[in-house]
């Protein structure tokens, strides 16, 4: 059973201190042993890289034997049937809560705050994180970076909104707020309750998307995840991409076989 806590990070101890005025900063410093146990030492390269994830733990079985894995190359999408459930996004600003997970820069959402609905199904935003290069391919092309906004429903179903980024003149404010505060140490967390970001600023104006059923792109590679891939990319500056690469460059799982899965296109 996967709960949102599975996507928040690893075993951590908490250190709190007060800074000037009303800003409370909380840092979480990882316990090396528990982090290693939860992680099973997976990486993006070498002996613990994507081709070996399934062998690192029985819990990672789907990484090797799954038939509906992510990411995929999006092509040959069919027009969505008219009765396909509609996506509705209800995001509001969230206080800063950033984790350097050891695999990505991640923002933890305040539980029960931001939600989306797909038809009658409600999903809460749990966290969002970034991959560079982007994991999904559109017609074989990869982007410089993507954002994955991970949501969970009350009955434990997962839905990820994915956004591609291209280089441009316009800096992304959410990404900048994060880059200004990401802890250098893997496993560390930074909370700043006095500063908020709105995850809506990560999403393109045009909400057209591709959708298919896939998996988590990191161990345990759990399937049954609804993917919604916005077609229109957002922009980040070269400076922002370089700053992201200071933390992670190459946290990208290779493309997985589609195995006949249907991909739908929603305008
Ligand atoms: Zn991801």
TrEMBL record:
It catalyses: hydrogencarbonate + H(+) = CO2 + H2O. Residues 1-35 form the signal peptide. Keywords: Lyase, Metal-binding, Signal, Zinc. InterPro entries: Alpha_CA_prokaryot-like, CA_dom, CA_dom_sf, Carbonic_anhydrase_a-class. Its EC number is 4.2.1.1. Residues 40-267 form the Alpha-carbonic anhydrase domain. PROSITE patterns: ALPHA_CA_2. It comes from the Bacteria. One of its GO terms (molecular function) is zinc ion binding. Pfam families: Carb_anhydrase. Belongs to the alpha-carbonic anhydrase family. This is carbonic anhydrase.
């Amino acid at each position: 059973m996967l709960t949102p806590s599975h996507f928040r990070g690893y075993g951590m101890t908490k250190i709190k201190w007060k800074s000037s005025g009303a800003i409370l900063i909380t840092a979480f410093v990882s316990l090396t042993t528990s982090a290693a146990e939860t992680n099973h030492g997976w990486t993006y390269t070498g002996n613990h890289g994507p081709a070996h994830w399934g062998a690192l733990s029985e819990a990672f079985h789907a990484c090797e034997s799954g038939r509906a894995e992510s990411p995929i190359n999006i092509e040959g999408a069919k027009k969505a049937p008219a009765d396909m459930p509609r996506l509705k996004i209800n995001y509001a600003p969230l206080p800063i809560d950033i984790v350097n997970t050891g695999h990505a820069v991640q923002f933890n959402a305040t539980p029960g705050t931001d939600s989306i609905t797909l038809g009658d199904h409600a999903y809460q935003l749990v966290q969002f994180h970034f991959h560079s290069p982007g994991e999904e391919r559109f017609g074989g092309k990869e982007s410089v970076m993507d954002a994955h906004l991970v949501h969970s429903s009350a009955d434990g179903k997962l839905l990820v909104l994915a956004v591609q980024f291209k280089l441009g003149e316009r800096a992304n404010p959410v990404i900048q707020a994060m880059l200004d505060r990401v802890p250098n140490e893997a496993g560390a967390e930074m909370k700043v309750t006095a500063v908020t970001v709105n995850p809506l600023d990560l999403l393109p104006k045009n909400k057209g998307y591709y959708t298919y059923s896939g998996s988590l792109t990191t161990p345990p590679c759990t399937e049954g995840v609804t993917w919604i891939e916005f077609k229109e990319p957002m922009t980040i500056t070269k400076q922002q991409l370089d700053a992201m690469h200071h933390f992670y460059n190459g946290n990208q799982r290779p493309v997985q076989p589609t195995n006949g899965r249907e991909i739908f296109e929603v305008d």
